[in-house]
Structure formats: C-alpha cells, structure tokens
Amino acid sequence: MKSSFQNIIQFGWRYRGYAFLNLIFNALYALFSALSFVSLIPMLNVLFETTEKQIEPAHYEGFFSIHHYIMDSLNFYIASQVDQNPQGTLIFVIGLVLSLFFLKNICNYLALYYITYLRNGIIKDLRNAIYEKIITLPISYFSEKKKGDLMAKITSDVTELQISFLSILELIVREPLTILFSLAAMLFFSVKLTFFVLFFIPISGLIISRIGKKLKSQSEKIQKEQGDFLSLIDETVNGQKIIKTFAAGDHFKHKFKSATTRFYDFSNQLLHRASLAGPASEFLGIVAIGVLLWYGGTMVLVEGSISGTSFIVYMGLAYNILTPAKAISKASYSIQKGNAAAERILEILNTKDQLKDAPNAKELKTFSDRIIFDKVAFRYEENPVLEDVSFEVKKGQMVALVGPSGSGKTTLTYLLNRFYDVNQGKLTIDGIPIDQIKKESLYQKIGMVTQESILFNDSVYNNLKLGNPNASSEAIEAAAKAANAEEFIQKLPQGYHTIIGDSGNKLSGGQKQRLTIARALLKDPDLLILDEATSALDTEAEQQVQKALVELMKNRTSFVIAHRLSTIQKADLILVLKQGKIVASGSHKKLLQQSEEYKSWVQIQQMD
C-alpha cells in the first residue's frame, strides 16, 4: 500500500520537468558546497605561509585521482606566484573562494526556483481534485459529514501540506547530496576522523525522531478541532435569526469557546514538542563539534597527522554535514505532522462514489415515453423510508405527491434524480433502469425548484445562466419575463448584473423563487420536480410565483410536492403517501370518493 506521501507526490508527475531541473541544481549546489570549503585551503595556506613548494606541474593519472591533480595544479600555480606577487595571489585565491560560494548560492536559488512550481503545482492540482471529488460525491456523503470539516480539509489541511509536508521535497535531494559530497571531501583529508564524525549523526537523528513520535496524532486532533469550529461558525452565520429569536447567543458562545479551548490545548502540546526539536538538534550538533575539536585537535597537535589549515577546513565540512543532517532530522517531524493532513485529504479523494455510472451506462437523449416505479423500496441506513412503491407516469402528465411530513415524498423525487439508488425494486425511464443511465444525461433532462431557493453569490444574469450556459441575453430575459421576474430585476441597482448576495439574501423570498423558476425555464427540462415551491411565501408572492409555475409546467412531465389544493386539483395523477407507502392514487375527484386520508387532507387545506 502506498504511503500518504507517495499518494500526494503523484500529483507532481505533470511537473516532472521542474523536478528534474531541481535535481540538477541541487546536485550542483551540493558539489559547490563541498568545493567552496575545500577552496579555503589555498587561501589559508597563503595567509599562514604554509603553501607547499611544488616545483613541477601536476600530472593527470586518471579520473579517480582527479582531486590530487586539481590540488597539485593549484599548489603549483600558487607556489610559482606567491613569491613574485603575494597580493595578486591572495586576490586570486579569495576570488576562487567567492566564485565557488557564488555558484553554490545561485544553484541553491535555481533549485528553490524550480521546486516552487512543483510544490505549488501539487497544491493547486490537489485542491482541484478535492473540489472535483466534492462535486461528484453523492448527496448521502454530505448528509453524514460536517461542512466545516470539508472546508478545513480543502483549506487548512492543504496549507499544512504545503508548509510541513511538501517543504521536505527540497531536502530529499539537496541535503543527502550535500552530506555525500562533504563526506567525500572529508575522507580525502582523514578517513579516521570522518568515521568518528559518522558515529554521531545516527545518534542525533534517533533522538530527534523520538521527540517527534507523537506529533501525528496531535496534529490529527488539531485539524479535527479546526473542522469542528468551522462547522460551528457556518451554523452560527446561517442560523442568526433563530439564535437571536431564542436568545441562544450564550449557548453558542459557550460551545464555540469550548471548541477553541480544546484547539488551544492541543496546539500548545504540539508546539511545545515541536519547539523541543530545534534546541535539541542544535545542542547535539554543538556536542558533536566539541568532541570533534578535541579529537581533531589531538591529531593536529599531538600526532601531526593533519595540518592546521586542513583541520580548519575539515571543521567547516563537518558543519556542512551537521546542518543538513539536522534539517533531515527535523524533516521527520514535518512528515509526521503533514502525514495527518495528507490522510484527512486522502479520505475524501479515496471515497468511492457508490452512484457512479455503470460500465455500459446509456445516454438519455430524450424523455419520450414513461417513468415506472415498480415495487421500489428505499431505506436510509437502517431506517425504511419507502416501501413497495409502484406507479406509472406518462410523458406530459402532472403527478402530485401529498401526505404528512416524513411520508417519503421528497425521497421519492431524490430517487428520480438519482441522488440515491433504490434498495429494492426497479425504477425505469423509457424502459431503461435508472442506474444504467449516465448521470450527466439524466441531470440534463431534469429541472428542479425546491422550497428553499438555492441561489449563489453572483449576478442575477449568471445565476440564471446556470440553467443554460449557452443561452443568449435575449433568451435569459425571455425566461425572466415568463417567470414574472422581469419587473423586479429591472428595478435592481445594476439590473441583470446586480450581485444578489450569499444565497440571494438581498432579494425577498418571492423574488428568489421566481429567479429559480426562470433558471428552470431557461434549462427547458423534459422532467420537472417542484418540491413545495410556494410553501414558504406569503399570499401575494405565492400568486406571482404560481403564475410562473403554470408557465413552467406547460407541456412538461411534472412531479409536484405541494400543500395547496389549487395546485393538486389539476394533477393527472395524485399519490397519497403515508409512512413510506402509497395508500391511495388517482384523480382528485376519484380520491375524494375513495380515500379517507385524501379527503381528510383536503378538509385541512380548505380550513387553511
């Protein structure tokens, strides 16, 4: 099974060109990093007048002796120049050092320059992938998950990946190669001293990894708490009217403070442990340098097996190893922290869509015949919602669904939309089982107007255009006129280009509903679902919307959930539902004679 890191890093495949360039410049950075310290030897030799007097030019003896050839050539040049022009020689060796340090840093910049495209590209594609997944997931997924938790995953969790997880990409090549080249140079100076250094690096790494052992679980707690209080913020914003009306502000304040206090405690625990990693690794590095100074100093002063200038450069190379070794140790902490965020993100991306198109799914090009519910049953988790539902609707007919709340009316329309799959029985459209129809083509044939007007924080024009992205301005205006919305749109500050606010809250209930009807008209669907489209409106607004609905239902197959008797009487077929079952069906006149449930319902409506 792939690790979370491997699953995330696969998003970088399309940016592999940048990864390759980063690899090249990191390798050059590591090489120049080692050479920049080695180049200090000629300068120190000139300063301390310890340059070896090499009379003959160096001889090239093969690739594996190239370092001897370079050093001998350099010594020969310096030895021949130092007596004649000491100041010029000093400028030359300083220029050599500066050139190598410049090349090292320019390569470091270029490596970071190209890794930026890889890191940010992965983040961009990851966010797009999460959003696309959210768009395709079934309705049932969102009824089980907190909205705030989903928002936290696509925002803060992805940001956490960028900060703590993907930041190690630049360490993967650069730091190991820096260590490798520095070790190669150190072995050139002293094999015994180098093995002594290598003894301390694993000890340092082990201690740092133990410090970061619990970071993953603590990060998961923090990210979960963040999702919880984001959900609470969302509920608070959407429920302001109820919170104020019921004076529930103190309750929600207490609830939010409890969530932020838990977040505070978990964050402190995490940051305290994280803060320990830096000082601990720093102290261990100093301890290693101190021991190295003692051991190397003995080799210089007592044994004389290494020169003073070489030992100074050697110490620089040792530091050049300890710094990336410390970075790699700290990176293990970043991996643990980022791994928790990665797993939460992958939880969404790996969610299976139980309602995805069948392998041989057909495209519903047009609805031309009939819809059949044949002994359909549906349950939500373990709770039965519909049972043994059977009826037939021909093209062009209007079907009314009546019954008490919880009788399964809305669920029945959700099955027709294929928001859920039936558990038993069969639902067909033009003889094709609904689970064998491509969802995209099914949605193109269905229009829906719900009790809650679902609009977006955009202009009137763009909200309407969702019904038909290819519609002309003339078609949009015609749909608005047919929905009895043209008059109030023209009175808005910028007309059709007025931004209507979050969920259309700058408009009245009747205005919002007429916009949703205009949007449905613009779509021109074969099949229309009206889910109590006028129940939330006052009498005047209802009359205006009702006129628009009559226009919308012309020559369409309609499923209408309504509590207004005037709407129901016009239906070709009325289905009376009770506790998930159809207890009566027929025309209005027939049901008044044969169904006590329907007759009772009509009497209640007339009393209203």
Q: How large a portion of the residues is in β-strands, by DSSP E?
A: 5-15%
Write out the CATH superfamily name of the largest domain: ABC transporter type 1, transmembrane domain
Number of H/I helices = 23
Give the spatial strand order of the biggest sheet: 6-7-8-3-9-10
Give a written overview of the molecule:
- By secondary structure, this protein is of the alpha/beta class.
- It folds into two domains: 4-349, ABC transporter transmembrane region fold (Up-down Bundle); 370-607, Rossmann fold.
- It contains 23 helices and ten strands.
- It has helices at 4-9, 16-38, 40-48, 66-82, 86-136, 139-144, 147-165, 169-189, 191-211, 215-238, 240-245, 249-303, 308-349, 409-416, 439-444, 460-465, 473-482, 486-490, 509-523, 539-553, 565-568, 588-594, 596-607, and strands at 370-380, 383-394, 398-402, 424-429, 432-433, 446-450, 527-531, 557-561, 573-578, 581-586.
- The strands form two sheets. It has a six-stranded mixed beta sheet, sandwiched between helices.
- Helix 17 packs across helix 19 and helix 22 (588-594) crosses helix 23 (596-607).
Give a nutshell description of this structure.
With 608 residues, the chain is an alpha/beta fold. Helices cover 64% and strands 10% of the residues. It has 23 helices and 10 strands.
